[in-house]
Write a structure and sequence with these properties.
Aspartate Aminotransferase, domain 1; Aspartate Aminotransferase, domain 2; 2 domains; four-stranded antiparallel sheet; 14 helices
Length: 379
Amino acid sequence: MTASFALAAFLTRWAPGIRHDLTASESEPLALADLLARADDEDRARWERLSLGYPDPRGACWLRAAVAARHAVLSGDEVVCCSGAQEALSCTVASLVRPGDHAVVVLPIYQPAEQAVTSLCATTGVPLREEAGTWRLDADRIAAALRPETRLVLMNLPNSPTGAQLDTRGLEDLVRLCRVRGIWLVNDEVYGLTATTDSLPAVADFYERGVSVNGLSKGFGLPGLRVGWAATRDRELLARIVVAKSRSSSCLSATSEVLAHVALKSEAGIRGRNRAIGTRNASRLRQVAAGWPGLLEMGPAQNLAFAFVRYRGADSSEAFARELAGKAGILVLPGSLWRSPLAPVAEDGLRIGLGRRASERALGALAAHLSRRAAAPAA
């Protein structure tokens, strides 16, 4: 039986006809011409003489070296490139666990990532802890969930939808917990570039059994390239990931490899552009929420690609999201889309996208709808 994907089903139902889309969690997409304009002489020459044969299944050596340069201790031989971060994560999980093993998944998490684990082994869900409007990892909760057969801890930090971040001290605590038991620690780090904190730790830099999964879709605004990767110091695991990958995409697009290399070498400029857009939209959303203190509650900003705003209305966040879509043509994502059979998660929030230029106008439409809603006579 095929597992359902709640977020995709919600978008399929409500996205057609929408005028204001606030569901995106990626930065403003770059146009091809804009990206190529950032290429240096080396990459322009590489682009012009590009052969469209099969690339290296691991990713081109120069692309893997550029990924490794983002890490403190890795080389290009400790990176495998994949067709998007989700393939990298799925192949990593498939290379680590099997029936009879146990895994811990930190919640909330992208539903296909959760299902990649639950389809293979027994799994315990551990929710993030909320304190004063922000969310954080609780190592004690994870410790309580471990079993003798636990082989993997999987998390997504910075987290979607909550924005929770992983600081160095929290990661060190978690690494100590995993190291003494020989447990693998895999982190989906795709929202690191859009986090409000400038420099966040990478799991692969801190732990010999740590795997950092990342890609160009979110922080770089390049989901159309379909470039992701898994990075780890364990080369035996990398070899198994390549084998798992051979059963799906086999290799990247040759054109995407060159364009990805341009993007990685232009990271500072792309990041500055995207953070400016996200900062402006976060400020606008805060203004909207402040105008409706009994209805919308926005904690400290933790990510510039999206915000998790608590909905305090009498109905559910999902009902309110359906109202926005049906009556105002505004699409947001209710927290119920991250519901898990493993453990309760916060369902009273709305994930609102901040990374697109069009978000500013969409937030204005949200404010206008709330005003009309308040002025309407009671039913």
